[in-house]
Each structure stands twice: as structure tokens, then as C-alpha cells.
Specification:
Largest sheet: 5 strands, parallel
Order of helices and strands: HHHEHEHHEHEEEHHEHHHHHHH
Low-confidence stretches: 1-12
Helix content: 40-55%
Strand order of the largest sheet: 2-3-6-1-7
Distance between the termini: 48 Å
Strand content: 5-15%
Shape: globular
Bound molecules: adenosine-5'-triphosphate, magnesium ion
Number of domains: 3
Mean pLDDT: 88
Number of helices: 16
Length: 335
């Protein structure tokens, strides 16, 4: 609904991309900046990121911000598809192509017409279908199963995966040439634990829009509850946060959320982090040089995570953005 009202004016693409995908952390804003640029082109985009980071939402947003926005957006989940089924779903089949093919069937490529075809979990596509997809991406040509003729389509392909395609290529389960073809513009959605500054903003937006949806009062979040949410690692990413907001809203019937209302798994992680943060450090009688100590700890964290800034940030209980800020502030070389 929101999409269709905003997209009327294509000159407001940039506004739209930022309205649908909530977040202000520098790493997300950078992804959105690139997404805005590629939205108006026809290039293939490969969206990567852990489960629940918003890959499908980003694909839909790119479509809505593209000149194809009035054409169909067709989404195919490629997970666990047998070879024949994958071929038939994508490229269609003619009557008699296989035992159960009682009539002609148009595939997703045909249905996408001049719009966008979104291939979710693309890493799972069977190898033979990958070869056909590559041919389609290169020429726009494809052949429905059991048909003696070629078809042509101008559908744009966006793909997503939460697996590492480099490893799939190395393992021989994903074609290298298809990988290069799809990966013209890579967009990586960082996990929520690497953009903790977005957690409060997302929770507030979800509570507000879900309250409106369910006809309940919009609840507030106590400062302690916010702190707790920000310390949790969110393995299910934004989806997990959204679902928690919906659960809290319904169970508390719109009352403000206190730390006691959060699930034990979230409270426990917070308690452990708070305990370990204060544990074991006693201020020497002669005092310390806090700035020097901070720099030393940052260096140690970078060294023990072999320069991986996200991992180093986690060891220090900081967001990656905060760590980067401090690395810059102290002029620390991270290699
Ligand atoms: N930045 C965001 N702002 C608002 N909502 C978001 C954002 N990111 C994700 N969501 C919401 O989180 C949920 C999960 O997003 P989505 O389905 O796009 O994730 P995904 O990366 O495709 O997950 P999966 O790998 O499991 O398929 C959806 O309800 C989506 O609308
Ligand atoms: Mg998805």
C-alpha cells in the first residue's frame, strides 16, 4: 500500500527506498545509496545477507523504484526444487512435456513480462537450470520444457542468497559464469548485530505500524528494554525483531514494554554482557590512562580477530560503526 502511493512520482525514488527500508546506520545507508543508483538501470543484482536481513524487501523496493514499477514483480523461491520442476516453474512447459503436463504452462519468466523476476535462494538452483538461466540472462532467450521453439523475455533478474556463493562455486554446486553474471552489482545487507544503532528505530517503527494494524495503543519502550534489545545478537535479524514487537504488542495489549516483558533469551544475553563488562577489572590505586587503555583494547581486539572489524567490535561490545569511529579517532592502523 505504502509502495503504490509513494511510487507515483518517480523523481522521489530516493525518498521511497528510504521510506520502505528503515534504518540509518552508515552500513545500511550505503547499501540503499547503491540500490537507488541501480534501481533505474537494468543490471542484474545479487543481494546477500543472513536470514531476515531484508533481502526480499530490498528486491521489491528496487523494483518499485525502477522504471518497471508498473510491471509485475514475480518471486520464485529456488530452495529444494527438483531439476524438472525448477525448469518448468521458471521457463514453463508445453502439454505432454512430462507425464502430468496436461496443458501448456507459462513459467515465471513469462509472467514477469517486462517487470522483475526475483530468484530467492538462488544458490539452490539445480546445475542444469543454472545453465538455462545463464543463457536467458545473456540473450533473453529461453525454451519452455518440451517445446520446439524459443521464447524471448526482457524481464530483469534480481537474485538473493543467504549462502556464500564463493564457497558454492568452489564446491562446484554453483556455476562460476552464472555467479559473475548475477553478481554485476553485489548488495550485502549487514546482520542486525552489525547495525545495532538501527534496533531502537526499527522497534519503534514496528510497534507503531503494528499497533495501527491491530487497532491498539502504540506502546512505548522503557530505556532498559531498549538497552536490552540493543545488546542481543538477533540471529533471526529484522524478522525476529518484527515478530517480537508483534508478540509484545498483542500480549501487553498496547502497554509500554519493560525489560521484564522481554523473553529470557534476550534478557540473559544482556545480563551476561553487563556482568562480563564489569567483572574482573579493579582500578589500580595510581589510576589508569583510559584513552591509552581503550586504544590498547581496540588493538588487541583487531589482532585477535585478524583485522575483522565486525568481530573485533563484538569482542568490545561495540557496534561496528562505533569501532570504526574510534579507530579513526585514535588513528589506529587495523592491519
Ligand atoms: N530495514 C527494514 N525495515 C523495515 N522492515 C524490514 C527491514 N528489513 C527487513 N524487514 C522486514 O523483516 C522481515 C524479513 O525480511 P525479508 O523477508 O526481506 O528477509 P530475507 O532476507 O529475505 O529473509 P530470508 O533469507 O529468511 O528469506 C519482513 O517482514 C521485512 O518487511
Ligand atoms: Mg527471503
Amino acid at each position: 500500500m505504502l509502495m503504490s502511493t509513494i511510487i507515483k512520482d518517480q523523481s522521489r525514488n530516493s525518498y521511497m527506498v528510504r521510506t520502505l527500508i528503515q534504518g540509518q546506520s552508515p552500513c545500511l545507508v550505503e547499501v540503499l545509496r547503491v540500490a537507488e543508483i541501480v534501481a533505474v538501470t537494468d543490471v542484474n543484482v545479487l543481494i546477500t545477507g543472513e536470514t531476515g536481513t531484508g533481502k526480499e524487501l530490498l528486491a521489491r523496493t528496487i523494483h518499485q523504484a525502477s522504471p518497471r514499477y508498473q510491471q509485475p514483480f514475480v518471486s520464485l523461491n529456488c530452495a529444494s526444487l527438483e531439476e524438472d520442476l525448477a525448469d518448468s516453474l521458471l521457463f514453463g512447459h508445453c502439454r505432454g512435456a512430462f507425464t502430468d503436463a496436461k496443458r501448456d504452462h507459462d513459467g515465471y519468466v513469462h509472467q514477469a513480462a517486462d517487470g522483475t523476476l526475483f530468484l530467492d535462494e538462488v544458490a539452490d538452483l539445480p546445475l542444469t537450470t543454472q545453465a538455462k538461466l545463464l543463457r536467458f540472462l545473456e540473450s533473453g532467450e529461453y525454451q519452455p520444457l518440451g517445446c520446439g521453439f524459443q521464447r524471448h523475455s526482457t524481464a530483469r533478474v534480481l537474485a538473493a542468497t543467504n549462502r556464500c556463493l564463493d564457497s558454492a562455486v568452489a564446491a562446484g554446486t554453483f556455476r562460476r559464469d552464472l555467479y559473475y553474471r548475477l553478481n554485476v552489482i553485489p548488495l550485502h545487507l549487514p546482520p542486525l548485530r552489525e547495525r545495532r544503532s538501527d534496533i531502537e528505530l526499527l522497534a519503534v517503527k514496528f510497534l507503531s505500524s503494528l499497533a495501527q494494524h491491530h487497532g491498539l495503543r502504540c506502546p512505548g519502550l522503557s530505556p532498559n528494554a531498549v538497552q536490552c534489545l540493543q545488546k542481543y545478537d538477533w540471529p533471526g535479524n529484522v524478522r525476529e525483531l518484527r515478530n517480537l514487537c508483534e508478540r509484545l504488542l498483542i500480549l501487553l495489549q498496547g502497554q509500554d514494554v519493560q525489560v521484564e516483558n522481554l523473553p529470557p533469551v534476550i534478557r540473559n544475553q544482556h545480563d551476561q554482557k553487563t556482568a562480563s563488562a564489569g567483572a574482573g577489572f579493579v582500578l589500580p590505586v595510581n589510576g589508569i590512562d583510559l584513552y591509552q587503555l581503550e586504544q590498547d583494547l581496540i588493538r588487541q581486539a583487531l589482532a585477535s580477530s585478524s583485522g575483522n572489524q565486525s568481530q573485533a567490535a563484538r569482542l568490545l561490545g561495540l557496534t561496528r560503526d562505533t569501532l570504526l569511529y574510534r579507530i579513526k579517532k585514535y588513528g589506529i592502523q587495523d592491519r
